[in-house]
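B., you asked whether I could sanity-check this one before it goes into the benchmark set. Here's the sequence:
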Amino acid sequence: MPDHPKLNENRPISVLLIEDDDRYALFVRELLATEKSFYLFQVSVAQKMEEAKPILQSDPPDVILLDISMCANYGLKVFSWLRKEFPGIPVVVLMQLVDESRALQAVKEGAKDFLLKDYTHGPKLPQTIVSVLQKKAAEDAQREGEERFRVMIENSSDVITVLNKDGVVDYESPSLERIFGYEPNELIGKRIFEYVHPEDREKVLKVFQECIKEVGSVRSVRFRFAHKNGSWIFVESISKTVAAKRGGEPFCVVNSRDVTERIRMESELRSLSFTDELTGTHNRKTFMMLVDHQLKVARREKKDNVYMLYADVDNLKEVNARLGEEMGDQLLVDAAQVLKTVFRSVDIISRIDGDEFAVFLPGTKGRDDAMTILKRLSDAVQEWQDKVSRPYKLSISAGIVQYNPEHPKEAEVLLSEADKALSAEKLKKKTISSS
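And here's what the prediction gave me:
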């Protein structure tokens, strides 16, 4: 059997993205084109099932990225169609936080992995794609009894475990030591359930027993796993049962990753009312938490195409006084809608307070500088003004600053600098209008 062509650095991994948000699709294209990776990517985009079908039939991709958050249950409908018509192509689902139940349902039905769209910046997305393909190659190779099974997963960032029908470890990938502290041979020959937290053991055992009964079945489960240092690591595992060669007993290939940090963030997000009720944008607390996370990524990857924009609606007090607070609220809603049309779904928009908004841009196109971004906003405000009839004028002032990874700052500091840039911009406006 020839090497999987897309596990070869000389040939690109072909990716089909099914996504109805043009801006996010562009973000994924640019991320996979520019990401410093051992692998090359070639991305095709379809907005719906009908557009995906000819691509899948004429030039099947190596992996499919599917936005499970598309309107109503359309994302799940597309997923079911993919699993029926193209079962051999692995699918990774992309989701918003509120769509976790849909994503887990997709994983139960055969999706290879899922990612929060807010956390696909930097190497996370390409790493996940490569990991999914490595796992598929490992399953194929193990099924045919090839020794190179181990070679294919030596460099996997996730922990790959092979369990026999009794849950005894037959193989552990080298990444076990990096994530959980054990050398692989320390766990080989032992029942994996001994290392699962007592409160999670019954749940994990049930999932394993369901999975091992049916060749080809896929299950996912979250649980706590014992680190060698005595701590508990939150783990997300996706398991698939594979038929052995020449009538041997089936075995289970388990792909596991440390999700401790992700669970902590999800818990914090759920504990907050994380959207502004009036505008539907993030509120300040959620915004600051998400931005801090993205700044860590930018600092680690030395990204300098990252911006913080601070804006306010110029005439809110006047509208409230002249037309009433209901019209003032409508003005804020209109301002938020304009911001949503200007910026991508991966950009983080927040109503900070009253008439003030902030936007964090975690990675713009190379030609997008601060002035380009401000002009795009100005043009969008004017376009809205030309098209929409309101008893008031929409006017937004904005200031923007660029993040410097050589001199990293916390979110609050960057936001404060953007606020100062806004003040300078408003002063410039005032000077021009009075001259």
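One thing to flag: Residues 183 and 201 are 22 Å apart (CA to CA). Otherwise nothing jumped out at me.
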